[in-house]
Write a structure and sequence with these properties.
CATH architecture of one domain: 3-Layer(aba) Sandwich
Distance between the termini: 55 Å
Strand order of the largest sheet: 13-12-9-10-11-14-18-16
CATH topology of one domain: Rossmann fold
Shape: globular
Number of helices: 13
Helix content: 25-40%
Oligomer: single chain
CATH class of one domain: Alpha Beta
Number of strands: 19
Largest sheet: 8 strands, antiparallel
Structural class: alpha+beta
Length: about 425
């Protein structure tokens, strides 16, 4: 029996698996956490398409993969990963199977926010001042040293999870303990496993004001090319750093030179040890300067792939699979289209979701797409207890750029009828 060629997708979520299976049937072999499969709403792949095993046990994963490849007569032509907590596993497997993927060292440089910012600073790239903090007293000292607001966050977290703004020494002390307790409560989560290797290490970071952006770019042959640039719309009411939505396209201010911007994208990835990758970069613009915040060698997630598919006819999930098989990433040429916002829909309180009704959104002429990821019966915990279960889905809509964007997002989100008991 001749072998079939597939791309190995390591540790992604059930909605991405369903997306890839529907858009490129038979293209991928998935390694999935059994807990992810148990909670999935989507139909599961066949046994030939998916390996279920403990993703924390790298040896077990490697053995299960080897057995599956022999049994199903599969040859791998690439390896892909869309999720931060699985990138180290993907890098290890790529080394064992001699497949192209960023190195373990490069992945760790990106995942560890202290390391990435230290490396950027050493190479004269603008990034917030940072310090590793091991006690609440050190957090207070850091706040006093800055003489103003600071941010505390886990060294290897993701998104806005367990990120706190501190406007006083007492707040720095209290929030340090909140993060410690939050990490302890997440001791089974792969995203935070390094916390339990020793004493807790929490990152103190200078607070930078300005517009925040998120960018996907492809790094190849010593140059960078932008895939998408979006401006973040941050919530002024929710947990600090929470993105309500993303505006596509997100235009850079006139004082930012495009050629220098591309050079900065390239350098930001190269100095972390990357040579060929699709990268997601978060950055801020403060007083005409780009301040680097976080980089990951993967495409941006959340509602961003849906936004790109709807508004740019770009299936970034499958385009990334092609890239992982050593095909060039063909960036869609820019074209005239209406600006769109991908708006994230959040529950406002904890409990059991009793009702979720989007009919009022369906009748709004601005709305182009509605995606609800939760059904009645879903248990909700709000931050800081949980930063995943309170997300109910997203909508894509065309905003009025002459009006304040956060207000438009908030008024639209309020049209979703939610009952929680």
């Amino acid at each position: 029996m001749p072998p079939s060629f597939k791309v190995l997708v390591v540790g992604t979520t059930s909605d991405y698996i369903d997306w890839i299976r529907n858009s490129s049937p038979g293209r991928a072999l998935f390694i999935t956490d059994p807990a992810e499969r148990r909670k999935a709403e989507e139909p599961g792949p066949s046994r030939a398409e998916e390996i279920l095993c403990d993703l924390c046990n790298f040896t077990e994963v490697h053995q299960a993969l080897r057995q599956h490849l022999r049994r199903e007569s599969i040859r791998l032509e690439g390896i892909a990963c869309y999720d931060c907590e699985s990138m180290e596993l993907a890098a290890v497997l790529a080394g064992q199977l001699e497949l192209p993927y960023p190195s373990v060292e490069a992945v760790n440089n990106c995942r560890n926010k202290y390391l990435s910012k230290t490396i950027w600073a050493e190479h004269k790239l603008c990034t917030p001042r940072t310090r590793k903090l091991r006690t609440a007293a050190e957090a207070v000292d850091f706040f006093q040293e800055l003489g103003g607001p600071c941010v505390l966050k886990p060294v290897d977290g993701s998104g806005s999870e367990l990120i706190f703004r501190c406007d006083s020494g007492q707040a720095a002390k209290d929030n340090f303990e909140k993060i410690r307790n939050g990490l302890q409560a997440r001791r089974a989560h792969r995203l935070y496993k390094s916390f339990f290797a020793g004493d807790p290490v929490i990152l103190g970071e200078e607070l930078v004001h300005g517009q925040e952006f998120s960018c996907d770019f492809v790094l190849e042959n010593g140059r960078a090319e932008v895939i998408r640039l979006t401006r973040k719309i941050l919530s002024s009411r929710g947990p600090f750093g929470t993105a309500m939505g993303y505006l596509l396209p997100g235009s850079l201010p006139d004082e930012i030179d495009e050629r220098q911007f591309l050079q900065l994208l390239c350098q930001s990835a190269l100095v972390l040890g990357l040579s060929r990758a699709v990268c997601m970069l978060d950055f801020m613009i403060h007083q005409g300067r780009i301040i680097l915040l976080e980089l990951a060698p993967r495409p941006g997630g959340d509602c961003l792939p849906y936004l790109l598919r709807r508004c740019r006819n770009l299936d970034i999930l499958n385009r990334y699979l092609d890239f992982c098989c050593q095909q060039p990433f063909a960036v869609n040429p820019p074209f005239d289209s209406q600006p769109c916002i991908g708006l994230r829909l959040h529950a406002q309180r904890s409990g059991i979701l009793k009702k979720i009704d989007a009919r009022r959104l369906q009748h709004d002429p601005r709305v182009r797409e509605i995606f609800l990821s939760r059904k009645p019966g879903h248990p909700i915990k709000t931050p800081p207890d949980d930063y995943d279960s309170w997300l109910l889905g997203h909508i894509i809509f065309e905003p009025d750029l002459d009006l304040e964007l956060e207000s438009q997002c908030r008024s639209l989100a309020e049209k979703l009828i939610i009952e929680v008991e």
